[in-house]
Structure to design on (757 residues):
């Protein structure tokens, strides 16, 4: 039975279980709902959950574990000399999988019988051609070892699936008989369902956390590989970024980190004052009517995809800056400081624009959380609105605002599309904002796109860079949360 | 009551500080204050009493134009401070609020040090020339608010770290430091325990030497204890206004009597 049908059966069974459980509970109470401990639907839900949840859990674990188990088993069958140099085991295994898949299809379409597959001889029959007719392309002729492995793979998968169906069915049956047996007017079905609901929430929460751990783990693995191939001193303390696919590259994070921080700094220089002032206007000065249309308008900025900002940087801001700072005597300033449209300033300005709604909407919430009594106190002493904002509201909201700025900074550091399009590709240690520079994220993209060889440090460095970026933004986020939490309660 | 008659004689010699004529207040469609006429005397404590929602706080906030900060609120009629209409176009509400200070229901110290809380008003209005002058203003204000002894050793500690009663006295000191002519108090003791309440009440009586005090209170005992004049509000109307002793012992209006004796409110 395929997984789809198995799940459908489970759903069908639990629907039936719901009706049965509900009915049994009602009968046990003599048809009177008031005699039941819980509402009838709780009894039904309890039975339905007992039928569906444990088998589904078993099913998902089985589906994850079975291929791993079978592959490790089958891989042992392939003799070592079968694996050519520079080809790793996973390539051979994918051949095995393809052949076994092809055999399956062949049987399904009636080209071969199951018995025929068992006695199939790879040398006698043109297996490659026959499978090719079925749409399964193989790189080379099927060798006897591969065919054996594929056969084994096939039988194990079939047996495994059969076992899975039986075990899942068994679990459903046990779940049903247990919960149906328990169903009685005094059974606390409501509490049982409550626990089920809680378990669901716990699963959701742990999935999110586990995913994070999984991401970090996978990056960590490749990062360690990278440091096995490349000197860590060069990575952390070198000064040159010069990847060279013939080997012997200089891969230092410092020029990239400098570009990243420089661009983020300019972005914050744009976003923090504008965002903060916008937030102050919206929360302190604007009347309800203005606020009700200005705030959504401002938040539209937050909904623009960053690639569109990238286009804006490339097509509008960049040429505009060139017109001001470049073109010699034809330019606005009559200077020749800037030649190309891509520069730190271009990317920084556009990223700053992107961050405005982020800063303003967080700061707006924080400023609104300052109690009105604080403003009244200041106004009641004869302070003007701006004195009140400067001396009372902002100091009271400051920890939250600092937190918002740090969150914005960590977004700026992780931002990719704008810098890919606006900042350029040259790793460069320079203080001049009109020059092209490159960032960590841009380099990750370029190291991983195109022809990549996952055994070379030039590719693996992307993971080390990603890890560094992750640590950097994680640190900023933790700092932001710490600041916000530490100083928050003071004014509540 | 002996004490009260003594005070009563003193009261009658005072000048009129604030005079309200035909004041109406609307909150959107709600008519919150209906045609109120009242005369607040200088160097006197005037209490506003009445059931919740009767408009006493609203009326109090009219006297330093704090209602300006609420968009839906419209005030008409005249309120005269020393004979000048405070709702006149030429009057700067910010300057007015420096003259008519306010203490709120909930203690609301700023998230600053105790010193900076008190120095806030003088700094804004430039009431000092040298640092030592400011120090003196702060000390005087804290002494007048009867909190100096408790905080003199920790003037740089945050004002929010004080107890509720201390915070409220700090807020009173903050209002006093600006040297107002009138002090409005909106239920200043409602968030305080009986001991702190007693301290604040004692303080109010002392403050009367310097300026006119208007206090809104829910507690009739408090009104009787601290005020010389009492105004009773009911459903937006000023029902009765007179010398405190008279209002409490010999109310002219049936509604006042019902409220004082606990039948309405």
């Amino acid at each position: 039975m395929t997984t789809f049908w198995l799940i459908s059966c489970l759903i069908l069974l639990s629907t039936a279980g719901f009706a049965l459980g509900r009915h049994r509970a009602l009968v046990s109470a003599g048809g009177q709902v008031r005699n039941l401990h819980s509402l009838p639907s709780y009894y039904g839900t309890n039975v339905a959950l007992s039928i569906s949840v444990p088998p589904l859990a078993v099913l998902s674990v089985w589906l994850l574990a079975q291929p791993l188990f079978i592959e490790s088993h089958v891989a042992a069958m392939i003799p070592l000399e079968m694996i050519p140099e520079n080809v790793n085991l996973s390539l051979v295994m994918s051949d095995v999988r393809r052949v076994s898949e092809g055999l399956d299809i062949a049987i399904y379409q009636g080209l071969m019988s199951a018995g025929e597959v068992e006695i199939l001889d790879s040398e006698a029959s043109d297996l490659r051609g026959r499978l090719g007719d079925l749409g399964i392309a193989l790189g080379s002729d099927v060798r006897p070892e591969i065919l054996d492995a594929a056969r084994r793979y096939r039988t194990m998968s079939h047996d495994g699936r059969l076992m899975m169906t039986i075990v899942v069915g068994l679990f459903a049956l046990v779940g049903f008989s247990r919960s149906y047996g328990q169903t009685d007017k005094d059974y606390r079905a409501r509490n049982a369902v409550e626990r089920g609901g809680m378990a669901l929430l716990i699963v959701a929460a742990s999935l999110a956390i586990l995913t994070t751990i999984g991401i970090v783990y996978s990056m960590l693995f490749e990062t360690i590989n990278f440091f096995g191939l490349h000197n860590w001193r060069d990575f952390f303390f070198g000064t040159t970024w010069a990847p060279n696919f013939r080997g012997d590259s200089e891969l230092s994070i410092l020029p990239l980190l400098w570009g990243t921080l420089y661009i983020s700094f300019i972005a914050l220089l744009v976003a923090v004052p504008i965002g903060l002032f916008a937030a102050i206007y919206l929360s302190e000065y604007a009347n309800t009517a203005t606020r009700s249309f200005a705030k959504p308008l401002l938040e539209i900025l937050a909904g623009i995809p960053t690639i569109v900002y990238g286009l804006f940087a490339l097509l509008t801001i960049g040429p505009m800056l060139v017109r001001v700072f470049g073109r010699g005597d034809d330019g606005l300033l009559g200077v020749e400081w800037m030649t190309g449209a891509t520069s730190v300033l271009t990317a920084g300005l556009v990223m700053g624009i992107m961050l405005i709604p982020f800063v303003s909407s967080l700061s707006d919430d924080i400023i609104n959380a300052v109690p009105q009594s604080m403003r009244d106190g200041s106004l009641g002493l004869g302070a003007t609105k701006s004195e009140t904002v400067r001396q009372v509201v902002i100091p009271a909201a400051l920890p939250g605002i600092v937190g918002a700025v740090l969150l914005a900074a960590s977004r700026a550091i992780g931002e990719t599309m704008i810098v890919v399009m606006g900042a350029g590709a040259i790793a460069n240690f320079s203080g001049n904002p009109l020059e092209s520079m490159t960032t960590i994220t841009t380099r990750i993209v370029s190291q991983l796109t195109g022809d990549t060889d996952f055994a070379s440090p030039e590719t693996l460095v992307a993971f080390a860079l990603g890890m560094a970026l992750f640590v950097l933004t994680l640190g900023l986020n933790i700092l932001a949360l710490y600041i916000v939490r530490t100083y928050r309660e003071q004014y509540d | 009551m002996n004490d009260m008659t003594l005070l009563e004689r003193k009261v009658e010699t005072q000048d009129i500080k604030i005079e309200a004529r035909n004041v109406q207040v609307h909150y959107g469609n709600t008519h919150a204050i209906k045609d109120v006429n009242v005369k607040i005397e200088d160097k006197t404590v005037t209490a506003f009493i009445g059931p919740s929602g009767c408009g006493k706080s609203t009326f109090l906030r009219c006297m330093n134009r704090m209602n300006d900060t609420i968009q839906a609120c419209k005030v008409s009629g005249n309120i005269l401070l020393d004979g000048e209409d405070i709702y006149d176009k030429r009057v700067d509400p910010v300057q007015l609020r420096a003259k008519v200070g306010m203490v709120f229901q909930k203690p609301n110290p700023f998230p600053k040090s105790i010193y900076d809380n008190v120095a806030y008003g003088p700094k804004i209005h430039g009431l000092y020339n040298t640092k030592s002058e400011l120090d003196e203003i702060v000390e005087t204000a804290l002494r007048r608010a009867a909190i100096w002894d408790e905080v003199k050793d920790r003037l740089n500690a945050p004002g929010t770290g004080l107890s509720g009663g201390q915070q409220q006295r700090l807020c009173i000191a903050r209002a006093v430091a600006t040297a107002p002519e009138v002090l409005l108090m909106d239920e200043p003791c409602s968030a305080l325990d009986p001991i702190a309440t007693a301290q604040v009440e004692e303080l109010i009586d002392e403050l009367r030497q310097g300026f006119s005090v208007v206090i809104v209170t829910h507690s009739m005992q408090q009104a009787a204890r601290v005020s010389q004049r009492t105004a009773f509000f009911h459903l937006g109307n000023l029902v009765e206004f007179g010398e405190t002793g008279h209002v409490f012992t010999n109310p002219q209006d049936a509604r006042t009597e019902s409220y004082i004796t606990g039948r309405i409110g």
